[in-house]
Design a protein that fits this description.
This protein is α+β, with helices and mostly antiparallel strands and about 450 residues long. The chain has four domains: about 5-45; about 55-160, 2-Layer Sandwich (Phosphorylase Kinase, domain 1), CATH 3.30.200.20; about 165-220 and about 245-335, Transferase(Phosphotransferase) domain 1 (Transferase(Phosphotransferase), domain 1); about 340-425, no CATH class. About 50% of the residues lie in helices and about 10% in strands. The protein has helices at about 5-15, 20-30, 35-45, 115-120, 125-135, 165-170, 175-195, 225-230, 250, 260-275, 280-290, 300-310, 325-335, 335-385, 395-405, 415-425, 435-445, and strands at about 75, 80-90, 90-100, 110-115, 145-150, 155-160, 165, 210, 215-220. The strands form two sheets. Strands 1-2-3-4-6-5 form a six-stranded antiparallel sheet. This is Serine/threonine protein kinase. Keywords: ATP-binding, Kinase, Nucleotide-binding, Serine/threonine-protein kinase, Transferase.
């Protein structure tokens, strides 16, 4: 304990000590830091056995020692018959109950609040908060039905929830990743419903969510202590929270917003999926939800929930929706068969277009070759004109043509080879018949 520690931090440190150690620490604090001692002492006097679970005012997980001499078992209070005890602690004691007027058959739980806490918070405040919670009507939130007072004990009548905490469910190892995310979405729906009714939970953690055999959650223990601290500047600094899941602003005693619950949901998600999320998208979502700066987090539980649904449906999350390759990859994952067919069609179209372009170029090339060959033939005929004595032999014309073909850079090599091969084919010799005009004429005359 140092002078830089806040009274709240010292208070929670003292709660981890036994009675003798706690007294020694208080004596030491009184000597070294009298001002801090004066701030911490009222908190200790409220309840020597109180721990960080002050937020369990409306829950069923009371763990501290309540007065063992006090028992409500078997009593009839108002229209409720009190049955077996469910649990007890520094906040109060919880009993199962049933209606004794025979009008309805309901499994109920009645929480009797510690009188010392009633003195601090006030009966009006407790009933006001219970009334706000009673307005919440959601299948994944434990329902508050009624409230009253009995011999100085404020009691609240609630739905009796059967199930295991998320701690137990996750540690059982029976849930796969998809089931965990589906369960988390249901919890988000419950918190979003509370936000729509202007109610913060302010203490979201695994112990405050029960899960039944059908993997349906029930959110418990809304933190009305935190709201009381914010609404009254003169109130004792009872900053009740779970450090592992509370937002930085809550730990610093600052004003809470919806983003504070978003932070706690991000921490809860991290707890559910493990310290090292396998999916990169999931890690981005957790990092976004648990930013130190509240303004950098998701602005609402709806946005957080939407990204989790995107992972389940293999759609792009909002944090990466601007990346075209990522969006395309998600589309292929989501619709592999249509994407494969579309890819095949696109490939066929590309190949068909490439073939057309190739054929078009080939036709243009052949056209150019034909024009060049026509030019060569024309040139050959032009050089073959003249007097009979100057006429070139066939071999001479072929040699001239061969040279012109070889020197033409526009003709493709394979065309040159074919043309040269054709020109090398020997031409059959034609024997001309010479007629001796004088001899023929003499013969004719003699005859």
């Amino acid at each position: 304990m140092t002078a830089n520690s806040s009274s709240t931090e010292i208070f929670y440190q003292l709660l981890d000590l036994n009675e003798a150690e706690q007294q020694r620490s208080l004596d030491d604090l009184k000597k070294r830091h009298p001002s801090l001692y004066q701030q911490v002492l009222p908190l200790i006097n409220v309840n020597q056995a109180t721990d960080a679970a002050l937020t369990q005012l409306l829950g069923f997980h009371v763990k501290q020692v309540f007065d063992n001499d006090i028992s409500f078992n078997g009593l009839t209070i108002d229209k409720y018959k009190i049955n077996d005890e469910i649990g007890r602690g520094g906040m109060g004691v919880v009993h199962s109950a049933e209606r004794c007027d025979k009008t309805f058959e309901q499994e109920l739980a009645i929480k009797f609040i510690q009188p010392s806490l009633t003195d601090i918070l006030g009966k009006a405040f407790l009933f006001q908060e219970a009334q706000l919670l009673a307005r919440l009507n959601h299948p994944y939130i434990a329902k508050v039905f009624d409230g009253g007072e009995h011999q100085g004990y404020v009691y609240i009548v609630m739905e009796k929830v059967k199930g295991r905490t998320i701690n137990e469910v996750i540690n059982s190892g029976n849930l796969n990743q998809r089931q965990k995310l589906q369960l988390f979405i249901l919890i988000c729906q419950a918190i979003q419903h509370a936000h729509q009714n202007q109610i913060l939970h302010a203490d979201i953690k695994p112990e405050n969510v029960l899960v039944d055999d059908a993997l349906m959650p029930k959110v418990l223990d809304f933190n009305i202590i935190q709201k009381q601290q914010q609404s009254s500047q003169d109130a004792a600094p009872l900053l009740a929270y779970s450090k592992a899941f509370a937002s930085p602003e809550q730990q610093n005693g600052q004003y809470l917003t919806n983003q504070s619950d978003v932070f706690s949901l991000g921490k809860l998600l991290l707890f559910m999926v493990g310290e090292q999320p396998a999916k990169a998208d999931l890690k981005l979502i957790i990092d976004k939800a648990t930013k130190e700066n509240a303004g950098q987090r998701y602005s609402s539980v709806i946005e957080l929930m939407a990204d989790i649904k995107s992972i389940l449906n293999q759609r792009p999350i909002s944090l990466k929706a601007h990346k075209p390759f990522y969006v395309t990859h998600k589309l292929i994952q989501r619709r592999p068969l249509p994407s494969a067919l579309a890819g095949c069609l696109l490939l066929c179209a590309v190949l068909f277009s490439a073939t057309l372009v190739h054929k078009n170029r080939q036709l243009e090339q052949e056209k150019a070759i034909a024009e060049d060959m026509m030019f060569e033939v024309t040139s050959l005929l032009f050089h073959s004109k003249g007097d009979v004595d100057r006429q070139m032999s066939v071999q001479t014309m072929l040699e001239l043509t061969r040279r012109r073909i070889l020197s033409n850079p526009d003709l493709p090599q394979h065309i040159k080879q074919k043309m040269l091969l054709a020109m090398m084919t020997p031409v059959p010799e034609k024997h001309s018949i010479k007629i001796d005009c004088q001899q023929n004429c003499a013969t004719s005359v003699s005859n």
